[in-house]
Structures are given as C-alpha cells and as structure tokens.
Amino acid sequence: MTRAAVLGSGSWGTAFAKVLADAGTDVVLWARRPELAQAVRDRHENADYLPGVLLPTNITATSDPLEAVDGADFVVLAVPSQSLRDNLAAVASSLPRGSVLVSLMKGVELGTTKRMSEVIREVADVAEGSVSVVTGPNLAKEIAAGQPAATVVACSDGETAERLQDACRTAYFRPYTNIDVVGCELGGAVKNVIALATGMAEGMGFGDNTKASLITRGLAETARLGAALGADPMTFSGLAGLGDLVATCTSPLSRNRTFGERLGRGETLVDILAQKQQTAEGVKSCQSILDLARKHDVDMPITEHVVAVVHDGMTPREMLRGLMSRETRSE
C-alpha cells in the first residue's frame, strides 16, 4: 500500500490528502495543533478549514512531523511558502530514502528568490528528479466537495511524475504530467499577484473589461519571466498557467482575489491581515517575484504596482492610474 505524509493541515493540504486517500493511498496529515490532529483522527473532519467535509478513514493525523513522514512514499509539503525552509529543515534528516517530495506551494522565497522546488532540493539535499510540483486551477473547497478538476503534476523525471499521477487520480481529480517545473511553478506563484490586482479592480467596482485586461496582461508578465528562466512557453497556455490564473482571479473562493477586493474597497492591509485565518500567498511573494524579475531584467508592471500597494502605501486607484498611464507599445 502506498503511503503519503501531508505536512500542512490548511484547506489545500487537507483537500489533497483527501484526493490521495480517495485514490487508495494511506495518508498521515500533520497538523501543528494537537487538537486539530485529534479532531481529524476522531471525527474525520477538519472543521477549521473544510467544515462539513467528511474525510476518508484512511486519513489519520498527528502533531508530530517525524511520525508523519515515517515510511512515507510521498512527502507532500503544504505549508505557507515563506515557512517552507524552517518546516522542512525540521524533518529533513528523517525523510525516508527514495521518497518523492511534493510541493503544493505557490510562491517564491523572500531574500533568496528561489522557487519552492529549489528550496526543497537545497534543504533536503535531494536530486531534482525527486521533487514534484502539483499546480493548476485547484480551489480547495471545490475539490474537497468532489467537483471535477484537473491539475498538473510536474517533475523533471517523467517516471516520478507518472508515479504521483497514479497516486492522486480519482473520478473527480484528473492529473496531467509535465516536465517543465520552472514554468509550472512560476505560473502558480505569479497568478497570486495578478489575483490581488484583479481583486482590487473588483473592489473598486470595475467591470469585466478591466479584469480581463489585468488577467491577460498578467499572463504576458508571467510568460516573460518564464522565458527569461528557461520555461516552456506552452506551459503558460495550459492548466498551470492560464487555468490557474483564471480560477484564482475570478473565484470568490480565492484568498488572493478576496484579499485584493478588500483592499479595493478601502480596507487597510493591517486590518485585513489581522482578520485572515489563511495565508494569501501573493501578499508576501509579490516582493520576491518582483526581485526575481529585476534580477533577470524582466518588466512586470502589474507586479510592480501590486508591491507598491501592499508594501509602499500606494492606493489601488493610484495603481490603476499608474498602469493606464504607462507608455503605449505593441502587444
């Protein structure tokens, strides 16, 4: 029997644990809080993040990360991207030999500008082919409810990608493989930033033309960065690019979109952060993505303006005026 450890008991970590379990994998979910782990064990529910969703009986839970990873074929990392390094370092020496490390995270590390798979390889000291990425239009609540969805399983080693594909395929969850890890990770990270901008437009009361323009030009920014880092351009027209971007920018279930919407309505960053239970990855990763773009001399004006709103005090209306007043050019 295949065994997986899922480190991170938020909505997406729990939903993916359910996917793995429904596909026939035995899953141990790691929760930082012992009371949450006990609730999953005793009541088969994560009421904090997916209330009302009955979890399969082949999911158990623990608050001990070393217990979680013991004997795991797949170690799935579903913690906030900026805490990945510390969380993984705590278990790195105990990772089973030959296990596949799977990233569900969509961000770029502050300071180092490393993608999540790069952080995993560095901290765990594993080969590139041992790290996979799951990314796509995967809103956790819809997947946990069994609504049909597709995703991308990316790994530089095709056989490893196929192993994970087999381990997470269900009647409602259809994974496709891809060897372009760079493109898949960039699509997942940058879309959070574009969703913040699109949410701001929604919060200010602008319509579909505005939001479609931001989504499309946001995709162009992502593709430019991808080209500079050697990604396959076709990746950005697929599930990991356009698919994830559309879902995140348009759904009220998207944390980044709703965060941006609240900014657009005039709420302050401090007030929103004080009330949010879950992480809106784009809020922190927007700066590291801009740093990465500048390192490679890539122009990303939407990302630049989102950083100005989130970190430098620019208002959402000033952001849109700034974007609209830029010098005209060929598409």
Helix coverage percent = 40-55%
Enter the CATH topology name of the largest domain. Answer: Rossmann fold
Strand content: 5-15%
CATH-assigned homologous superfamily of the largest domain:
NAD(P)-binding Rossmann-like Domain
The CATH first-level class of the largest domain comes to Alpha Beta
- Major sheet: 8 strands, mixed
Runs with pLDDT <50, length 5+? Answer: none
Give the strand tally: 8
Distance between the termini: 52 Å
Shape: globular
Query: What is the H-and-E element order?
Result: EHEHEHEHEHEHEHEHHHHHHHH
**Strand ordering within the main sheet:** 3-2-1-4-5-6-7-8
Which CATH-level-2 architecture of the largest domain? 3-Layer(aba) Sandwich
Class by SSE composition: alpha/beta
Estimate nothing, just give the exact number of structural domains: 2
- Tally the helices: 15
Mean pLDDT metric: 96
Radius of gyration: 19 Å
Give an overview in words.
- The protein folds into 2 domains: 3-179, Rossmann fold; 182-324, N-(1-d-carboxylethyl)-l-norvaline Dehydrogenase, domain 2 (Orthogonal Bundle), CATH 1.10.1040.10.
- β7 (149-154), α7 and β8 form a beta-alpha-beta unit.
- The longest helix is centred in the middle third of the chain and has 23 residues, at 181-203.
- It contains 15 helices and 8 strands.
- The chain is an alpha/beta fold.
- Helix content is 50%, strand content 12%.
- An 8-stranded mixed β-sheet has the order 3-2-1-4-5-6-7-8, with helices on both faces.
